[in-house]
Write a structure and sequence with these properties.
7 helices, single chain, three-stranded antiparallel beta sheet
């Protein structure tokens, strides 16, 4: 059965339960989780080198994440002394409506989301600071940084989010396992949220395609 309706991005998303949120609510664990998401399987030693921590510290945090199935061992890879870890495939939501009803749940969710987006913001800032000096021209021209302000209702925003999600899912499915000398991990951001209402504000488009 096929349909022209955009796929609901929340239909097959793992919503982290309070226990998993609490386990993830540590800046280093969020960093580890996101590194595994972006760069693929890592060991405690490779993570330690990236984070400037000891392998003992990263091993401790890896075990805590694995306890709640946030990460898993890579099957058939590694040894008893050097295990490889990966993030299971699939979408994850840090916003659990039930958890948000309690102070502890809200606090854990805020730590996770703040740490996650802090890392992504640092990556963007680093790209802006160094892209024109270190990135080849073809990558500079292929990248795009753009923001747009529009006037919408909540249902219209929801429809737009569904369309974006369908497009991103298509790209993720098509290129998920692609490898090769010219292949690099790409971060794609789609932040859509309401601003404070303002009378007589004009639509503004600010773009910086590169």
């Amino acid at each position: 059965m096929t349909t022209d309706e955009p796929r609901d991005p929340f239909a097959h998303v793992r919503i982290l339960d309070p226990g998993a949120l609490k386990a993830l609510a540590h800046p280093i664990r969020v960093e580890i989780y996101d590194i595994l998401s972006q760069l693929g399987p890592q060991t405690a030693s490779s993570l330690a080198a990236r984070l400037g921590e000891s392998s003992g510290v990263t091993s401790y945090h890896l075990r805590a994440l694995a306890k709640h199935d946030l990460i898993q061992e890579v099957e058939g890879r590694g040894t008893a002394r050097e295990r490889w870890w990966e993030r299971p495939r699939g979408s994850v939501s840090f916003a659990n409506p039930e958890a948000m009803k309690t102070p502890a749940g809200r606090a854990a969710s805020q730590v996770v989301m703040s740490s996650y987006f802090d890392r992504r913001h640092r990556q963007l800032a680093d790209y802006l600071a160094h892209a024109y000096d270190v990135e080849p021209e073809e990558w500079q021209e292929a990248a795009m940084l753009s923001t747009t302000t529009v006037r919408m209702t909540a249902p219209q925003l929801r429809e737009l989010a569904l369309k974006f999600s369908a497009l991103l899912d298509e790209a993720a499915t098509t290129y998920r396992d692609q490898t090769g000398p010219d292949v690099r991990p790409i971060t794609v951001r789609a932040d859509m949220f309401p601003l404070e209402p303002a009378e007589d504000a004009e639509d503004v488009h600010e773009g910086d395609p590169q």
